Amino acid sequence: MYKFVMKRFFTSALIVIAVIVISFAIMHSVPGGPFDKEKTLPDKIKANIEKKFKLDLPVHKQLLDYLLSVSTGDFGPSYKYLGRSVNEIIKDALPVSASLGLLAFVLALLLGFLGSILSVWKVRKFLDYAVQFFSSLSVSFPSFVVASFFILIFSEKLKIFPPALWEGAQYVIMPALTLALAPAAYIARLLRGSILQIYNSNYVLSARAKGVDEFKLFLKHILPNSIMPVITITGPLLAGLVTGSFIVEEIFSIPGMGKFFVLAVTNRDYPLIMGITIVYSVILVFANFAVDICYLLLEPKLRREMQSL
Length: 309
Hints:
The chain has 309 residues and is an all-alpha fold. It contains 14 helices and no strands. The longest helix has 36 residues, at 86-121.
C-alpha cells in the first residue's frame, strides 16, 4: 500500500508539472502579448515594461524562471492589478470559490442520497418516477439557465434571496443550489441503480430469508456496499464544483477565482492565468489522489490485490 500511495503521489506531482509546462507553452504560442492593447505606449516604454517582467527573454528561459519561482510558492506579480501579487489575489479569491464549491458539494450529496433513497423506497411507483423525472430535468438545463430561473423566481417574484453579490449567508443559497442540482441528480441516479443491484443480490436475499430486520439490512449491508460508485466520483465532483463555477460566479457577481480567471484571460495577465490554472490543477489532481486512497481503504478486494503485488 505504501508503494501505491507513493507512486500515486509522484504521478500526481508529475501531472501538475506537465499542466504548468503545457499551459505556459500554449499561452506564449498565442499571437500578441499582455501589453499589446496599450497602443498609446511608446516602443521604448513598452520595451522597458517587457524587460521589467522578463518578457524579452527567450520562452524557455521564461519557463525555467517561472518553474523556479513556483517551486518556492511565488506566482509573481500581476501585470494588470498593479501593486498586487498573484498570491494576494488567489489568497482573497480562493476562500470564496472554495466556500461556494464545498457548500454545493454537501448539498449535492444530501440531495443525491435523499433522492436515491426515496426512489428505491417507492421503486416503480409515483415517487420513484417523480425523482427520476426531476433528475433528468436537472441535468438537462445548463447552469446559466438554472441561475436565471432562480433569480427570476426567488429574487424578482418572491423577494426571498438577493439576486447577486457575496455579502452574507442569504447570498450563498442560490449560487450553491445552482451548482449542486446537476451533480445531485447524477448521484441520485447512480446510487439508485447501485442500491437496486445490491438489493437483489444473493446474500441480501439470504439475509432477508433469515428474518434480518429490513431497516438494519439496508443500513448495515445494502447502503455501505452501494456507495462505492459514489465515492469514486466524489473527488472529481468536489474539484469540479470548486473550480468549475466560472459562469455561476459571473452571473451572481461573486468575487471568486472564476471571475479573476476570466478577466485575466481577457487582459492576457500571464502570471494570474498561470497561478489560477496551477491552483485548479492541484485541487483536481489531489482530489483524485485522495479518492484513490479512500477507495483502497474501503475496498478489501483491491487492498488484498495491492498487498500481493
